[in-house]
Amino acid sequence: MSNSTGFNDNERDENKMKTAQTTPTSLSSVASARTLSQPGTALLGTGLETRSVHAWFGKKHVLSDVTLDFAAGTVTALIGPSGCGKSTFIRTLNRMHEFIPTAAMAGEVLLDGKDIYAPGTDVTKIRLRVGMVFQKPNPFPSMTIGENVLSGLKLAQIKKSNTDELLESCLTRAGLWNEVKDRLGEHGGSLSGGQQQRLCIARSLAVEPQVLLMDEPCSALDPGSTFRIEETIAELAKSMTIVIVTHNMQQAARVSDYTAFFLSDGGPGEMIEAAPTSRIFSSPQDKRTEDYVTGRFG
Amino acid sequence: MATELKERPAPPSPREITTKPRRSDQIFRIIVTIGGMASLVILGLIALFLSIKGVHILTEEKFGFITGSAWEVTNDENGTIIDTKFGIGAMLLGTMLAALIAISVGVPVAVLSALYLTFYANGRLKTFLISVIDLMAAFPSLLFGFWGFFVFMSSAEYWAKLINKYLGFIPLFDVPTPIFERSPFIAGLVLAIMIIPIVTSISREIFDQTPLDRVQAAYALGATKLAMIKAVVIPYGRGGIVGGAMLGLGRAMGETVAVYTVLNIVYQVNWQILFGAGGNIASLILLKFGEAGPYEVDALMAAGLVLFLLTLLVNATADVLINRFGGKGR
Amino acid sequence: MSTVIPTPKKPWQPTALDKLEDFLLVVAAFGVAGASVKFTGLDGKIGFFFSLFFSLLLLNYGFHYYKRGTAAAKDSLLQVFTVMAIVITCIPIASIVGTVVIKGYKGIHWGILTNDMALNSVNDPVAQGGLGHALVGTIIMVGLALIISFPIGVLTALYLTEIRGPLARPIRFLVQAMSGVPSIVAGLFILSSLVYPVTQQLSGLMGSLALTILMIPTIARTAEEMLLLIPNELREAGVALGGTQWRTVAGVVLPAAKSGLVTAIILGIARIIGETAPLLLVSGGGDALNVNPTQGAMGSLPYYIWKSFLTGGTPEAFARAWGGMLVLLSFIFILFGLARYLSGRKVA
Prior knowledge:
heterotrimer; A: alpha/beta; ten-stranded mixed β-sheet; 11 helices; 33% helix; 22% strand; C: mainly alpha; MetI-like fold; 2 domains
């Protein structure tokens, strides 16, 4: 009973559920409580699309045939058990995959319609438009808090005249301004884990990316910090496209508009199913998805 | 239904676990510890014996030993010594001068080479270059001296003349008479070539240890390789690189035969590095040793003691830097 | 639904066009350098080298600035600098090895390893005399030094890796400090502690004792590195079987580290085989074959080379010196090759 317009589906058909578990219900109700943001404005571009992306490490085929679109202004969660290629996939989106010497790939990743792997592309410019926040917070210890936030500008040699304004705005959007506004000159090491991660988020915002990739950003943090960061994600989604890898299904249900489920059966990881979040948790189409979201494995 | 939290009892204190080692293990530990103490003993003995032989010279000349720049033994017709004047000042200056030239030329080249090997080279080329550079570190210093004297001298002399021609207005590069052969400058260049392999090796090891997550963070922000190196690699490795440079300094300060072969050993204070005269403490010892009487030998021992303590200090500082700051962030 | 698996590609590798661009930049730089040498006052190797360097910098900067902007342009400069540095590092190596081979070739002859210099002077034609005495002397002195340094070095390494007592940090520090002792100071020490007070004569044994001081740190450090490579699981297995520590070390750890210890020996030998200064002070440097280390002056390869160079002055003498250097360098190459080969094999 899905809407033919696809993406504005708010259905909550509990009768269609194949199990009586309470978890999927609460997840799906949480998920459907999110309002989807409006797609595509000029600032956001037209989003990110992938076409038949494969990845290898040497001879080992680790990711197979992922075709997935990330509409502008949306939050997409990538879920699945460990080792199924989610992190590898997200690293193909900002060309970080190629840092591993044995890495190879196939397929296309289109940013605003242009393949980022096309020959002659300036990869540093791509990474300015597609930012990344890592699992373990990694502020630069040799720089102060203020310098850390603006480090992206320095690294890419971007000249800006009103850096103080930018500094404040990035820290505010990351939810960290009030806590550090009086100590911008201190070194990043004095912050807690959650604060450091928000600092990293602020840092990636400074270069004004269209897309923000987050690779399990909260898995090293306590629940309080996790909650704050999820609030941040909701705010950020209004002005950029977000892709988040997470092991935590409840988190996926809380923050994302769409969810893609990845799985590997010993071979290369594949994307099994992608749908609006509420539908993935309430009425998954594939049995493997259903087994995962109901907690039968993973 | 509210449950009351029980009072948690205080946890027990940890048990003390003791092991009585077996006899054979006790002996083993003693033997190994004695063996391990060997370096302490040897270093102590070196300091001791050099002092025993040389200390009376030091008490006689006092501070003049370090600062004085005359080294004379005056004998009468019978060969007994009337007067002596021992001051290593000129040679101390020569030691520092040659060593400083060595690190100002050698360290930048070595650090850049290490950057190349860590961040630009890969595969077979990288392995080959690393082997070649490690091999060079094993070349005998005599070989560098020979090569410096027979092969390198003419080119280096030419460069010295050029520097003198265009920069001669700076006193450092001026010369009293146009003799450019066998100068501290050339000796310094040969020493630079000698220390490049060591400093490159250490720098490479430090660069290799740069934490990957920071490197990735920089790249993810759109950094070029240069930007990443400036923002992450250099701040991380700064302390260790300085330590490596100091190791090179220590090596250059103590070098004997290479300097002896290349440099024209003249006992005078010469800080005009392009002029062909100079020396360092080690080569002084070698030079004077052949014909030194017992009294003069004691003075050479004192000189050796000064050199020993100096290089010990430099190496100790290098050590602290490499181990403490080679791995930390700031 | 299974589809045909596409071929893995690496689209980030430099394309043929990129490589061509780089090549053309280098060619252009050579051209500019050549032209500037011809038409301006710069001359000689150094003039060419400098103008090559600057034209590489300028051309790279300009080209990449045009293509990708400031950041990429500055980045290309770093690449030029680092490549230049490695070239500067490699040129002396090539020159040194080349010189030794070319000049040394004239200084050796078939009898060189068996004759000695007892009846000849360094200025005699090269075909007379030889370095047999020097070779034997080096072997004896290095051998004696090894016999003393190896146990001490290994015991030190064992203290640092197996016992790890409270003195570990000071001992590690002292080993590093000891490796920085200038070789001439080692010679002076032997003089002041043994030659003058005790034996009153120079001999091969004195030489090897001086060499020991220089050898111990190398063996200790290398042995420590190699012992650290042995996985802890092996030690735990030994102890879990009821072994005492010493049996575990002697029976499990040391045999497993066999090739590593041999590497330590080889590197230690390579370190001291070319040492000249201490031998000049304490070994006497004889010209005749002398196999008794406790009695009389003993020659060695470095001393032979030094004597030929310093007391000679004729082309024959210099040729002799280079010949000796060729023999010495060949030994070092062989030692290094052995060490490489050994570390290529897996640790047990």
